[in-house]
Amino acid sequence: MTARAEIVVDLDAVRHNVRLLSDLVEPAGLMVVVKADGYGHGMVPVGRAAREAGADWLGVATLDEALALRAAGDEGRLLCWLAVPGENYAAALAGDVDVTAYTLAELDEIAAAVTDRAARVQLKVDTGLSRGGATVADWPGLVARARELEGAGTIAVTGIWSHIACSDDPDHPANEAQEAVFREALAVAEEAGLDPEVTHLANSAGAILRPSSRFGLVRCGLAAYGLDPAPGQPDTSALGLRPAMSARATLALSKPIHAGAGVSYGHTWVAEHDTTVGLVPAGYGDGVPRHASNRAEVWISGRRRPLRGRVCMDQVVVDLDGELPAPGTDVVLFGSGDDGEPTAQEWAEACETISYEIVTRIGGRFAHRYVGAAP
């Protein structure tokens, strides 16, 4: 049966990207970030492919994501970093998940969940993103408490880390400033007696564009999926990353319309001349951004076709420019671009957003299909 709409993920592309990134950042290790269902690609299949290609770690945001990976059979090093007060850490600790502490309260909650073996804990410091992590003022107290718990055998501090705000702009002064703060934080931790297994600061763009930020481990998310983490930077665009995701649909209908006909809700587009239009059965209920209305393009029968009118919940209309492809014809919303089809980056630019959002939000009623290897 032909899929109405599907996300096709090339796991060989994921493996290629992971190997390329691993080679690039050596001797630093590589963590592949698979949060948010693997950036929409499928957390479990992508995680397996990343492991097969040599990823040293996987990274997720929530405890639920970590436990889902463990339930699927993943046994490698795995870091989780986003929790709220009252989280149940017991299952994650039993599953040998490394968890992250930002505060004394969080550290003590983790310690309280320990039973028969020490919890593997990583400490995060806020070096200037002003998001998660201990403030510089609170950092000495956090590392002192961590050392106390480590000495008691309650936890093992396996890592210290932070996150860069402006790594896609290599000339931004925040990069140098954050790296300096991170080095100072490491010195404070060392003085307190901590000797973590890994230290990490760089995300995809930092790993590629700023070698000094690699430390012992880098965290690559977007780049592992073959998308450019710093569009416009020659060093990222020339790296040879291969986009892993294609979003496809089956043309439901094609028909002629006359000059003056309005298309979709509100008639935000009106045909200037007689033309033909096609109905693509995917809409904002499936994660197609409403901002793509009258902006983005799809690929049908060897040509780009612009979206006309507003994106609806279940469907979009495209201009076929007088042609009438048969219902059932393949539609590519975005893909690798190798055959001329739009890319996720082009959709992001059309919607005035980033490719991260395009690939993570697409889904809904799309089926997932994996090529390159069985998931």
Automatic annotation (TrEMBL):
Q: What class of enzyme is it?
A: isomerase
* Entries under PROSITE patterns matching the protein: ALANINE_RACEMASE
Positions bound to substrate: 131, 313
Sites bearing N6-(pyridoxal phosphate)lysine, chain numbering: 35
Q: Which UniProt keywords apply?
A: Isomerase, Pyridoxal phosphate
Q: In which pathway does it act?
A: Amino-acid biosynthesis; D-alanine biosynthesis; D-alanine from L-alanine: step 1/1
Q: Which reaction does it catalyse?
A: L-alanine = D-alanine
What are the Alanine racemase C-terminal domain coordinates in residue numbering? Answer: 244-371
Q: Name one Pfam family in it.
A: Ala_racemase_N
- InterPro entries, A to Z: Ala_racemase, Ala_racemase/Decarboxylase_C, Ala_racemase_C, Ala_racemase_N, Ala_racemase_pyridoxalP-BS, PLP-binding_barrel
Documented EC number(s):
5.1.1.1
Q: Tell me the domain of life.
A: Bacteria
Q: Which residues form the active site?
A: 35 (proton acceptor), 265 (proton acceptor)
For activity, the cofactor(s) needed are: pyridoxal 5'-phosphate
Signal peptide (from-to): none
Q: Which HAMAP family match?
A: Ala_racemase
Function, in words:
Catalyzes the interconversion of L-alanine and D-alanine. May also act on other amino acids.
The record's comment on protein family reads:
Belongs to the alanine racemase family.
* Protein name per the record: Alanine racemase
- According to its UniProt entry, this protein's organism is Nocardioides bigeumensis
Organism lineage: Bacteria, Bacillati, Actinomycetota, Actinomycetes, Propionibacteriales
